[in-house]
Write a structure and sequence with these properties.
Elements lengths: L3 H13 L4 E17 L2 E19 L2 E7 L4 H16 L17 E3 L5 H5 L2 H4 L3 H10 L3 E17 L4 E16 L5 E8 L7 H14 L9 E7 L1 H15 L2 H5 L20 E3 L21 E5 L2 E2 L6 H7 L22 E3 L6 H6 L3 E15 L4 E14 L2 E5 L3 E6 H6 L1 E13 L1 E18 L2
Parallel strand pairs: 4-6, 8-13
Antiparallel strand pairs: 1-2, 1-5, 2-3, 5-6, 6-7, 8-18, 9-10, 9-12, 10-11, 13-14, 14-15, 14-16, 16-18, 17-18
Amino acid sequence: MIGVDKARSIFQEAKSQCGSDLQVMLSGGKKQLARIGKNHVYQNLMKKDYTLKVQVADGQKVGNASCNRFFGKELLESIQKAELIASHQKEDPDFCGFHGSDQECIDDKFYCEKTIAADFQEKLKGMGQIFEDASARNVEVAGAFSHGDSIACIGNSHGLFQYHVCTDANFTLSIMTPQGGSGWAESHSHELSKIRAEELYERALQKALASEKPGLLPEGEYTVILEPPAVESLVMFLGYLGLGGLPCAEGRSYFSGKVGQQVLGENITLIDDYLSPESFGCPFDFEGSARSRQTLIENGKFMGPVLDRSTAKKLGFEASTGHALPYPSRPGPLPLNLGMQGGDQSLDEMVKNTKRGILVTRFFYDNVIDPGKMTITGMTRDGTFLIEDGEISTGLKNLRYNESLPRVFQNVAAISKDKWSLRGFGRTSLPALKIEGFKFTGQSS
């Protein structure tokens, strides 16, 4: 990992070689990845890579260039490229200049030394028994097991210097059976020790065996119980389409002009919180502004979007909430550490309290139909089950859904008390949901 002192020296050299307004961003890290297929680890990879992005501003004209060698000739050439690009740009009226600050931020709250020190042998020590059991049952395990660290560091000619490092571990696996069953499970944490491979295997195995010889179900509206990975797909689009400052400012968001209004069910509270252990994030954004904990939906009411400095100005807010993406950002600021407030039931209790419904493990191939109405579509995958009289009765062929997100989150009947840490659209911390009247429009294979 590039330490604080080395990062600072890289930034100092960049500033010494540039006579213009300058900002540099350092990112990258080390990653160890084990790929799994047909009940064995078939590939171990180790990657260590860092990138320095150089931004030069000439008034409101900005040029970007990048390099992966940070000293001497290569760094100077990147600065000169950024200067040349800036000279040919049109002025950007939304560019607010580089953010100045004399308050340094050095953050390693979610950096676990034991995680980064682990090797392949230590990480995979329990996989042999899993592969033996899978072979004995005539099922196939595939997936990936990764761990590593990452850095986000930003500095500029206005005195800004922010530094953040964290570790990350992720295990995802799928199981296929000879009779068409499939199961899936995933776990994600900044601490490798919290990844329980055996528990994930058992969860995916049970789903795969239970989903063999799946039945058919006609299209229509059903009570559904969505496990957290399926909820993550919906929340991802809710954040991307509606909770960012740019679509709200431009009137493209379903939530535009609705601050303080009831937009979702009263039992829905969404918070973007970089300090949450499940959705751990960075304490500053890509402008160098301090990231704040933002309640976006409170008891179903829209409290306002996340902002960068440009969208804060457009919407009449005093300051950024610290959610800028790297400039230039087409989607604008986005919530990358979304969490939903949990409820008072377990997932098992939600199933037991359901007369007839569908249990969904996760969605796949999700896409937008109508961004203004937040209408999306996708398919179930890796474990879709019919619930009858409070019990899972049979596996189902995958179903295609077509739903409006506001409608979905206005019809949530129950929320689980347990939440999962998930990775996808940033990092999320989400419960399972029981939803009434969820629309399925057909079947898929």
